User: What shape does this take?
Amino acid sequence: MGIPSFILQQLHRIESASCERIIQAEVPARALAYGAEGSEILAGHEDGIPRLWDASHFSLLRELPRHDAAILAVAARGSRWATGCAHGVIRITQGWNEVIGAFVPDAAGTPIPCWSLAWNLDGSLLLAGHEDHSARLYSVTGGSGRDARLKKRMFLPAGGGIGVRAVAFGPEDAQVGLLYGGGAAVWEGDREHPSAMFPLGDVKPTAERHLQLAFSRDRRMIAAAIRSQEIVLSHWDEAVTVLKGHTDLVTSLAWSPEGRFLISGSEDCTVRIWDTTTRDCVCVINDNVGAIWGVAFHPHGHDCAAVGEDGTIRIYELGSTWFEIKDAIAQASEVLAGKHTKLWPTTAPLDLDFVLDVWGDLRRRARHARLTPELATQGEAVRQTALELLALLCDGASPFVPPDGLERYKHPLFRVALADLRLASDLCLRLGGDAVAMANLAKMQRVPTIEVTSSGISIIPPRVK
Assistant: This one.
């Protein structure tokens, strides 16, 4: 199910959030995820029971198979639900509580907490981060999903007792794990050992919990919070900016389905919504009485949800200023010319990501709109302006994208291709690329245009008594 065309045909800027519904739960929940349609919310509770709630009528739909320990992570993809607990057991459920996969990390029964779960885009792979300084990749193939199996276990260098506290899929299904020490490891293809490792943000040694990692929808940008009040936006180890505003540790992160907005929850009892294009905090929600343990965006982007330490799930309706395509095209031209307008009131630098985000906003919605010849001509003019700016920003970059490794994901042309392959091909020609360079770009896996991402997860270790 894709994002409705009436949303894709308009640009919006989130400006407010009002509490629409409250779901009272007697048991604290540590993780939260919306289902594909947005009508269901899965909460992972401390009593080991994953509960599926009706997001429209704020009632309990059913309880999924119980774990023997607190649920630490949940993830949703299509009709499939994944849950992981403090003992490390992972269950994959679909339909009416049909368990299609159940995995125990240690045959001897040693508890190895599962801190984080993440699906890839097509729902065929599930990635899990564990305390035993390793991550596990599960294959969930077949129409019924009955072919769920452990595909590989990915190891970290020995020593240090480092746990993999957060996981996510990067571009081309590269697996990324965020380590307790603040570094990140990348596993590619069938490799069981990291192909790259790098620091991600500054580690705050006085904080004992909370590591967050999330990729934007097009997989170009990472959002991470490393035991910190701050959120780092980066391209792998290349920092883009730091989002500041929370006054206590960030506990959870989730991207909006179109990939422009980021929602964060914190122990300061607030939820913040960030515009990652302008790098501004556009909304602060502070009607919670306790720490926020999990946040999630509705798959259609018009609602968001948060769960606090008391287990109460609050669903917020987002208030937005909407812009029709014709207005957005005109404003995009002004923004790319260096003017600040109502749609993009920002002091953010005119960098590669800003240009791609402005063009990407228009492109996603224009794909689902009826464009008149006049609007199409104006839109092409915006595209040419964006291409000129990208050529200037990428001046000196090689037209050849490295075939693998971390440098591939960081390469400017690779980042442009993730957003718009045709734009990247034109840029490659401007940078002096030949037929070989063009063919290299054409091999890239594409992100589906209206793919709806699963909601974010909360990764909060149990407090040690």
About this structure: Residues 12 and 322 are 4 Å apart (CA to CA). Helices lie at 5-8, 325-336, 352-366, 373-393, 406-410, 412-419, 421-430, 435-442. Residues 448-465 have pLDDT under 50 and may be disordered. The longest strand covers residues 10-23.
